[in-house]
Q: What sequence folds into this?
């Protein structure tokens, strides 16, 4: 009799476990349906390959998540309380809560571009009224719990019939195959830069697809050169939000934009860059100017497009040239780029529409920069007005000077540096002094009525660690000079209010090209000629970024982890970030997608 009861108990537990597996599979299917809401944010695949990967990764990922929820929260209860009525009600409640969290995550991801985390939850809680509109947040959970209870009872009553079909092993094998295959395909896609696949990496919550880029590169496979045809993607971004309205009836000035890689604002002094230091005093000198990023790609993107780095990987911008370039060409400007051949164009269209004069580096950025300047001088003398020239100089990035260059005396750094950093510091000064001489030659030979803008693409850290250079959001790496010579229009002035690269394009479009659109139609910035009302500046890209506020700097990574520093980046502050500013930042990073 006792053995019979034990056997019946084991049969009941076995039946409950079998039911739990099928109930988990059903909820995995529901999670897949909810998961397609993420595609409204990231955009749909543009190829059969992308759709195939999306299908198997969706099946594998959400089935896996559903099974994990069952294994952690339901399976132990099955063993402790093997009573079907209790278990069905409990499992339905857990499934409802999980699906509601997933639905909430789709709303947050669409609004902020981040998945739920403790940090994002705090942020969303402060913005709850704006996120949850109408009464759907009340009706939806009720509908889900009714569906879950119905499904739980339906499966329990038919579990024996399902057993007789004997399809459980086939379902498990199919889901497992999808899960493993999605990771294997992603390894190949990551190595081969198939962006129709890799751009979906962050679409789903708790998704960490396998990669093998470092392994492939160590075996001589350069993924960046393969499958470029997959990079031409579309999205639902609106750039600009409304068509541009530009009428310029004034005489057109020539425009020269000079961008210097790794040009720190604190190095603009009489001993290191005497010409540029004096030139700044004679023109508009912006003392609190910030780059839009810590790398060339994000810094130049913020100059040309005037948008936050969170938009940098957008498929539309990959084949849409900046509005500044479009309008210059439409108004009859001759436009050209003078740069070195080791630049990475990101997005691909960032210099589209500019006649490109590219100088070979050949192990010397300094000689390549001299060649770029020589190309500009030749082009300028052979080009009719009006013209727009963009010269990018890279010597300071690699601390380079020409062979035989007679530079300046070494000095003691104002900040405490290691012995290795002191060597780099003074070599950096030599490179800046070389650039200063080249700038003097260029500017003194310009026609008088030329609008000149000189700035740094980003700042500079004295380190050889690329990860540190990317993630460090200190003023050394972000604070750059900005000098504007505006003939006959704006008098020399020391400008103390904070500005950023996001204001360069709106200033040229509104003040030079006669565009009457509000800057918010196409940019995250405002005109440089007046203080910006925003209390923050976004610096970085979509993987890691900093938020510059009046008295602190907040650094946030792609997973929502954040650190807060004082305004000099010298000590970390033990405090929570102010939610209102971060909500504004997140909204700005999604604003052009929501039009």
A:
């Amino acid at each position: 009799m006792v053995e019979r009861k034990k056997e019946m108990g084991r049969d009941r537990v076995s039946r409950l476990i079998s039911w739990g597996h099928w109930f988990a599979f059903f909820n995995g299917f529901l999670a897949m349906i909810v998961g397609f809401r993420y595609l409204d944010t990231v955009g749909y695949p543009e190829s059969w390959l992308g759709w195939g990967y999306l299908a198997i990764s969706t099946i594998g990922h959400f089935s896996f998540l559903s099974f994990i929820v069952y294994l952690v929260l339901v399976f132990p209860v099955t063993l402790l309380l093997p009573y079907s009525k209790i278990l069905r009600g409990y499992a339905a409640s857990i499934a409802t809560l999980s699906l509601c969290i997933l639905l909430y995550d789709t709303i947050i991801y669409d609004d902020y571009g981040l998945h739920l985390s403790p940090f994002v939850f705090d942020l969303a809680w402060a913005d709850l009224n704006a996120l949850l509109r109408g009464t759907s947040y009340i009706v939806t959970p009720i509908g889900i719990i009714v569906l879950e209870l119905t499904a739980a009872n339906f499966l329990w009553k038919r579990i024996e019939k399902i057993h007789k079909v004997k399809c459980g092993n086939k379902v498990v094998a199919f889901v497992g195959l999808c899960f493993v295959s999605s990771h294997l395909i992603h390894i190949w896609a990551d190595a081969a830069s198939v962006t129709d696949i890799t751009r979906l990496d962050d679409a789903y919550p708790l998704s960490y697809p396998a990669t093998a880029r470092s392994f492939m590169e160590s075996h001589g496979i350069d993924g960046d050169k393969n499958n470029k045809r997959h990079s031409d993607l579309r999205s639902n971004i609106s750039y600009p939000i409304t068509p541009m309205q530009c009428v310029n009836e004034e005489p057109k000035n020539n425009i020269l934009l000079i961008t210097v890689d790794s040009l720190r604002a604190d190095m603009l002094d009489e001993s290191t860059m005497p010409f540029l230091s004096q030139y700044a005093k004679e023109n508009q000198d912006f003392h609190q100017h910030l780059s839009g990023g810590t790398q060339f790609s994000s810094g130049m993107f913020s100059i040309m497009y005037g948008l936050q780095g969170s938009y940098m990987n957008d498929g539309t911008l990959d084949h849409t040239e900046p509005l500044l370039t479009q309008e210059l060409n439409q108004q009859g400007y001759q436009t050209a780029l003078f740069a070195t051949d080791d630049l990475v164009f990101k997005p691909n269209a960032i210099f589209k529409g500019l006649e490109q004069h590219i100088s070979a580096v050949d192990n010397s950025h300094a000689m390549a920069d001299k060649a770029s300047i020589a190309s500009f001088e030749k082009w300028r003398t052979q080009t009719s007005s009006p013209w727009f020239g963009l010269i990018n100089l890279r010597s300071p990035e690699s601390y380079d000077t020409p062979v035989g260059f007679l530079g300046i005396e070494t000095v003691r750094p104002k900040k405490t540096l290691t012995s290795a950093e002191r060597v780099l510091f003074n070599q950096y000064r030599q490179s800046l002094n070389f650039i200063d001489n080249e700038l003097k030659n260029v500017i003194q030979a310009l026609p008088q009525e030329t609008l000149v803008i000189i700035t740094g693409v980003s700042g500079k850290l004295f380190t050889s660690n690329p990860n540190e250079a990317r993630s460090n959001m200190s003023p050394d790496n972000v604070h750059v000079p900005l000098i504007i010579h505006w003939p006959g229009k704006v008098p020399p002035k020391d400008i103390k209010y904070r500005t950023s690269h996001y204001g360069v394009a709106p200033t040229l479009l509104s003040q030079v090209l006669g565009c009457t659109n509000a800057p918010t139609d196409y940019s995250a910035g405002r005109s440089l000629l007046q203080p910006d009302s925003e209390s923050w500046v976004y610096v970085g890209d979509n993987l890691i970024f900093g938020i510059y506020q009046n008295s602190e700097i907040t650094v946030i990574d792609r997973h929502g982890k954040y650190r807060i520093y004082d305004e000099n980046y010298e000590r970390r502050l033990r405090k929570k970030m102010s939610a209102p500013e971060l909500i504004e930042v997140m909204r700005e990073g999604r604003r052009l997608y929501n039009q």
About this structure: Residues 33 and 214 are 34 Å apart (CA to CA).
